[in-house]
Amino acid sequence: MIYPIVAYGDPVLKKKAVDVDKSMDIETLIDDMFETMYNASGVGLAAPQIGKSVRLFIMDGGKPDIEDRTPFQRVFINPEIIFEEGEEWAFEEGCLSIPDVRQDVMRKPNIKIKYFDADWKEHEDEFDSVTARIIQHEYDHVEGILFTDYLSPMKKRLLKGRLSNISKGKIKVDYLMKFPNRKR
């Protein structure tokens, strides 16, 4: 099932998500999230982006340095970033919840993260480069943080009108979205 992507301005995107409980049936949700992400041509998707305030995100970043991307599917349940290290570097980020807005965001290049996979097997892995960045971006979603929160006050002022239009649904996208301030 393809879910609508929740647009900028919806309170669920600014709320810290709760842990996934092992008793929850998440298999279908995970499958639906991959289907939703691929339908929107994304490389990552967090549960809050489909209106579910739980600590779950998925990604398929492929191998970013290879033209013919190899799938790199991962499921992160109840993730916890243990450390981020290295010299911060800028990279232009975008977000399915904030279509047509891309901005440079500074992040550290190396991370270590603890999480459970779809089979509830615990992992503690290190990632770097673009893969680390995708994970950091999606992790921020379960923490109630958007990439626009990292922007300078001036950049935020410059984007204010565009962000308002996104929340009102005054934007064209080729995937299903739910707009919090759309007038009926």
Number of helical segments with 4 or more residues: 3
- CATH architecture title: Alpha-Beta Complex
| Global structural class | alpha+beta
Distance between the termini: 25 Å
Number of domains: 1
What is the string of helix and strand elements?
Answer: EHEEEEEEEHHE
DSSP, total strands: 9
Largest sheet: 5 strands, antiparallel
Low-confidence stretches: none
Give the overall pLDDT as a whole number.
94
Helix content class:
10-25%
Word description of this protein:
- With 184 residues, this protein is of the alpha+beta class.
- It has three helices and nine strands.
- It has one domain: Peptide Deformylase (Alpha-Beta Complex), CATH 3.90.45.
- The strands form three sheets. A five-stranded antiparallel beta sheet has the order 2-3-4-7-8, with helices on both faces.
- Strand 7 and strand 8 form a beta hairpin.
- The longest helix has 16 residues.
- The model has no long low-confidence stretch (mean pLDDT 94).
